[in-house]
Design a protein that fits this description.
Elements lengths: L7 H16 L6 E4 L7 H4 L2 E7 L17 E6 L5 E5 L11 H13 L4 E10 L8 E10 L20 H10 L4 E7 L8 H9 L4 E3 L3 H9 L3 E11 L10 H24 L2
Parallel strand pairs: 1-4, 1-5, 5-9, 6-7, 7-8
Antiparallel strand pairs: 2-3, 3-4, 5-8, 6-9
Helix pairs in contact: 1-3, 3-6
The structure holds 6-chloroguanine.
6-chloroguanine binds next to strand 5, strand 8 and strand 9.
């Protein structure tokens, strides 16, 4: 995957074939990437029939961070559909290149998934979002200055985060707010000045994932739902300095509630 002459889509097909081989499941309908705070959804959406350590699959690397579990699961949903649950996110800030970042999305597409649900833990710019608030992603601003697309691939990103799926999510929780997600490179949190910039250019949520993955999912023709868990307010919006430990604690506390919400959304797909 790191060699420019290799074909990332061919490597995704190999990964999908390995998943089929290890599970006996040759088709998945929907894929979910579970970011911090969303992990419990894996158990709530249906019956996990197979769990695979992500490192066993071509192109996936070991988890880099505490709070990020490196497994892939095949889950049988109550409606008979199949979900691929990706608990192994490679972040852009790890520096392995954008191909690694979007490999799980391309692999999900290669297993047949036509719906991609991307979740994350993120910072909120709106003061009314207390830690633990789930927010629908309505659009994004990609501040990584990078793209998963290579060469002259001019794809449209209008309605990247499906209006249909956002409306469907609001039939489950009518109170769900939505906002524009800004993907920063990280791994440091933003300065208060950068948070003000994000706000000024139309952002409401700041994080370190999701946007590049959504672009790859669009390229693969998938319908995308994006959900952020607000684990804290962004720097300068909250008085206190940010800490990764607090982000993890907020995620853990909100996990049962937001995971149950996500499970209800998946059931309604
Ligand atoms: Cl404030 N910023 C970023 N980039 N990611 C976060 C966050 C903030 N809080 C949780 N994740």
């Amino acid at each position: 995957l790191d060699e420019p002459q290799t074909d990332p889509f061919e490597i995704a097909r190999i990964a999908a074939a390995e998943i089929a081989e290890l599970t006996g499941v040759t088709h998945h309908d929907v894929a979910l990437t579970l970011g911090s705070g969303w992990g419990k959804a894996a158990e709530l959406i249906g019956e996990t029939t197979h769990t695979i350590p992500a490192q066993a699959i071509t192109g996936f690397s070991a988890p880099a961070l505490e709070g990020h579990v490196g497994t892939l699961r095949s889950v049988l949903l109550p409606n008979g559909k199949r979900a691929l649950v990706i608990g192994a996110r490679t972040h852009y800030y790890e520096g392995h290149g954008v191909r690694r970042v979007v490999h799980s999305v391309r692999t999900a597409a290669a297993t047949g998934a036509t719906t991609m649900i991307l979740t994350n833990g993120a910072g909120g710019i709106r003061e009314t979002w207390t830690p633990g608030t789930p927010v629908l992603i309505s659009d994004h601003i990609n501040l990584t200055a990078d793209s998963p697309l290579e060469g002259a691939t001019f794809i449209d990103l209008t309605d990247l985060y499906s209006k249909r799926l956002r409306d469907l999510a609001r039939t489950i929780d009518p109170g769900l707010d939505e906002g524009v997600y800004c993907q920063f490179r990280g791994p440091h949190y933003e300065t208060p000045a950068e948070v003000q910039m994000a706000k000024a250019i139309g952002g409401h949520i700041v994080g370190m994932s999701t946007a590049l993955e959504a672009i790859a999912a669009r390229q693969a023709g998938m319908e995308i739902l994006g959900l952020s868990l607000i684990t804290n307010l962004a720097a300068g919006i909250q008085k206190e300095p940010l800490s990764h430990a607090e982000v993890l604690v907020a995620g853990r506390q909100a996990e049962p509630v937001i995971s149950a919400l996500l499970a209800r959304i998946v059931a309604a797909l």
